[in-house]
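Need residues for this backbone.
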């Protein structure tokens, strides 16, 4: 049953996302083709327009990825569709898990598409040489491999965006336990959860700085060492992983206490 739930959730969320994926890839390829021509005023104008569209598509991919997951959660669990959802022979644990897995999968595919689009639109011989040299220098600075450096950066950003989605979902669950202004309260609570936990991350980083002088250099406005930056990225991944897991279990517990269908 979980597979069926996940299938329907993914289909619903991917309907607009696939359109933006295709448009983003199409205009990224257009940018690459246009930039291969001899540069004239008209070609330059077309290039800038297509670059702007690529950026707009990337922004829309992220916004729609967030919004579709939140809207799906509300419609499927609290609105008209909820009457069917809650009569299915499946536990709320699996319904909730399906929504979280959908968020993770759609966010992951969106990340892949965005990276591919940026690579197509911006990487030519010159930019590739510059990027390669910069990554190699950064890897030497961090005493790491290029692959490890890129992996850590991508994982950190992915966990940060997943944290945003999870905060919104928990905000929806808490907000819909009230009797009125449920959507408004969901937005406010979700934003508050994100801001409070983000502030706690800074506090945790400061506490880590008290134990590690390298990390404290961030707060003292002095040159930050490679060890400090490495520690910050690793702490960031750990903190976001803990936050996402905590939000998952809290949301699951609250959902199992009962749902007030609109």
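Answer:
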């Amino acid at each position: 049953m979980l597979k069926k739930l996940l299938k329907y959730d993914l289909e619903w969320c991917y309907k607009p996302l696939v359109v933006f994926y295709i448009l983003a890839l199409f205009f990224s390829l257009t940018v690459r083709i246009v930039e291969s021509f001899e540069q004239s005023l008209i070609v330059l104008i077309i290039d800038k327009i297509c670059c702007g569209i690529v950026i707009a598509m990337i922004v829309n991919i992220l916004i729609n990825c967030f919004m579709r997951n939140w809207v799906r959660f509300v419609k499927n669990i609290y609105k008209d569709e909820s009457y069917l959802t809650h009569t299915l022979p499946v536990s709320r644990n699996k319904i909730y898990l399906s929504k979280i897995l959908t968020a993770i999968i759609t966010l992951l595919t969106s990340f892949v598409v965005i990276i591919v689009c940026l690579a197509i639109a911006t990487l030519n011989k010159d930019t590739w040489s510059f990027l390669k040299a910069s990554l190699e220098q950064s890897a030497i600075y961090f005493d790491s491999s290029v692959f490890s450096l890129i992996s850590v950066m991508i994982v950190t950003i992915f966990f940060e965006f997943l944290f945003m989605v999870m905060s919104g979902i928990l905000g929806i669950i808490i907000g819909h336990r009230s009797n009125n202004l449920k959507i408004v309260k969901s937005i406010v609570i979700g934003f508050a959860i994100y801001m409070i936990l983000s502030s706690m991350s800074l506090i945790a980083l400061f506490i880590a700085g008290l134990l590690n002088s390298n990390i404290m250099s961030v707060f003292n406005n002095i040159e930050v060492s490679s060890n400090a930056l490495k520690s910050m990225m690793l702490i960031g991944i750990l903190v976001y992983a803990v936050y996402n897991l905590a939000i998952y279990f809290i949301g699951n517990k609250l959902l199992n206490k009962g749902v007030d269908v609109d």
